């Protein structure tokens, strides 16, 4: 599509203009770090943030979401029947500013998961109203990042607009027609010229040496490594360390498992069916009828998470189950990390290849 120039001075005006038509959210500074939140004043928007505790997944898949309401109805003395009405919560035109390229990769995975096969209408209704404005990552967020290993250091093709910081202005790339309309409805940009395009190329190519690789194998090798290492001793060691707190899955931009519950009202005549985030790291996740638990040990649950991240999701959806964002590493109190685990597994397999 097209490339435009937006001067940094004009960004607040652009945000303000969007606020007239959309809910605008983006990274803001909080006492505990950066977080995606509503932007009420354009000065809150922090486009050069490092990382956020939670990814923007809460705008796509809320932590608690009512799917439908139900109640018993009885008309003119006839038989009772159950009335069900779909509920679409928080579905409104929303612009999300400042989405990093790794988080866009997470959203691209969600788009596949919730649209292919069984189409999730609640996700799709919300998704259609969301505009993504990405920001190119020119520096790693911190030591926990391994986006370069996971191939998420460039923007996947899901953004409506994508911005690159070039000092006193942003390059703004348009990814969709709706993104282009967003930009051109607000006359704050000018078309990029030939020398601007060359300058963008320089900015983009100069960022790569700043990012380090952390994995001892390529990301294409992780599925076979995890297959070979299924019975490795490592899982027992990690299981003994893991607290089963589920912090790693809660902060993850590619975790999408949920539970569905019926919450009856006090009259027992109606209620709501809600979906809430769940975690494979919790004991109850795999607890089924007859008190049987098919992933009872913490070792089996840690292994399952790694199998999802490095193998299963890729096999089913064709996209990596890990973006290399490093959030689970920052959140884990006992330092169980994706690169640390995969590298330790790689090492164990070199020592005991027959396992
Ligand atoms: S597994 Fe960890 S590093 Fe990978 S996407 Fe999830 S939170 Fe980020
Ligand atoms: S954050 Fe760490 S301790 Fe908590 S469940 Fe995940 S791996 Fe286990």
Relevant terms:
single chain; 355 residues; alpha+beta; 4-stranded antiparallel β-sheet; 14 strands; 33% helix; binds iron/sulfur cluster
Structure description:
The chain is an alpha+beta fold and 355 residues long. The chain has one domain. It has helices at residues 11-19, 101-115, 121-128, 147-150, 177-184, 194-207, 222-228, 234-241, 247-250, 298-317, 327-331, 338-351, and strands at 3-7, 23-30, 33-38, 64-73, 81-86, 94-99, 130-135, 161-165, 169-174, 189-191, 258-264, 270-277, 287-288, 292-293. The model has no long low-confidence stretch (mean pLDDT 95). It binds iron/sulfur cluster (2 copies). One iron/sulfur cluster is lined by residues 251-254, 309, 322-328, 338.
Bound molecules: iron/sulfur cluster
Number of strands: 14
Q: Beta-strand level of the residues, as a percent range?
A: 15-25%
Oligomeric state as shown: single chain
Whole-number count of domains: 1
pLDDT averaged over residues: 95
Quick recap of the structure?
This protein is α+β, with helices and mostly antiparallel strands and 355 residues long.
List the helices and strands and how they pair.
Blueprint: E1 3-7, H1 11-19, E2 23-30, E3 33-38, E4 64-73, E5 81-86, E6 94-99, H2 101-115, H3 121-128, E7 130-135, H4 147-150, E8 161-165, E9 169-174, H5 177-184, E10 189-191, H6 194-207, H7 222-228, H8 234-241, H9 247-250, E11 258-264, E12 270-277, E13 287-288, E14 292-293, H10 298-317, H11 327-331, H12 338-351
Parallel strand pairs: 2-6, 6-7, 7-8
Antiparallel strand pairs: 1-9, 1-10, 2-3, 4-5, 4-12, 8-9, 11-12, 13-14
Helix pairs in contact: 7-10, 7-12, 8-10
